[in-house]
Amino acid sequence: MGFTELANARLETIGFRSTAPRRAVLRAIEAAGAPFTVEDLLASLPDVGRATVFRTIKLLHELELLCRVPLEDGSVRYQLSQGEHHHHLVCRGCGRFTEFTDLELDARIQEQARAHDFTLEGHAVELYGLCRECRGQGA
Amino acid sequence: MGFTELANARLETIGFRSTAPRRAVLRAIEAAGAPFTVEDLLASLPDVGRATVFRTIKLLHELELLCRVPLEDGSVRYQLSQGEHHHHLVCRGCGRFTEFTDLELDARIQEQARAHDFTLEGHAVELYGLCRECRGQGA
DNA sequence: CTACATGCAAACCCTTTGCAAGCCG
DNA sequence: CGGCTTGCAAAGGGTTTGCATGTAG
């Protein structure tokens, strides 16, 4: 079962309607493959209204089906949430990013929260640099 | 020597002019004490033009004299760069944040970059949750 | 003096919203 | 059918820009 069906089922379960525009957005996201901007999605969905695309993205993000990655320049990318909690390696050259998980890193984060008497509810870790391809090309 | 003088000297060294508006912005930043929004700065500097405040902030950020902290809602705070590299605990209740450093955490980050054959140039770690005060009040 | 810096207002970008019409269940 | 959804266009906020004027060096 692909993302489109999965997400659609999930939406219906919670009480959201399965509509043509909604499914179109889901399909476009599944087809994207790589991280995409809202603009990318909009362009690939000329027949779906701007507002609907934004609303659907927001919905999916709230349901944690879509993962939002803030870039250093303030812009935002989205990509299918690979399920589990993870962090990102963001390439300054090509803009692509890779996910990784690191239990030890997460443990340090827990520990810092504890040390500061802080109730941890979430965290974000982004690494910026150059991937191998971009480093090679000096891009 | 305070931030204002330091930053001013640094700017002159690199070839930027020391102007009254520029110094006013520097003083306001130094006086802020806590993390501030651009709006805060603008309000505290009624006689300095909007554009100048933005331009100066950008300049200081590029020179790494000012540290930029993205919040979960997409808004941005700034604060004096405490020199050293650090991370943040951001309170969802009051919006304040605390800095911390963690060598072990940084080590994990280095290790992840190495493991992914990624040239690390920078990274951001933000923890979100509730500080003690806000947790108590259920704010 | 000359080039860089400023201030204003308008332009911009990205996202959200109001509202009438449409469609799912 | 009733109410959630949509699409449009307009509003919104946050930041940047063009240009004439001011001013540091």
From TrEMBL, chains A, B:
Keyword vocabulary terms for this entry: Cytoplasm, DNA-binding, Metal-binding, Repressor, Transcription, Transcription regulation, Zinc
Pfam families xrefs: FUR
Subcellular location(s) of the protein: Cytoplasm
CDD domains: Fur_like (cd07153)
Superkingdom of origin: Bacteria
UniProt subunit comment: Homodimer.
Family, as annotated: Belongs to the Fur family.
Name of the protein in question: Transcriptional repressor
Organism: Tepidiforma bonchosmolovskayae
Lineage: Bacteria, Bacillati, Chloroflexota, Tepidiformia, Tepidiformales
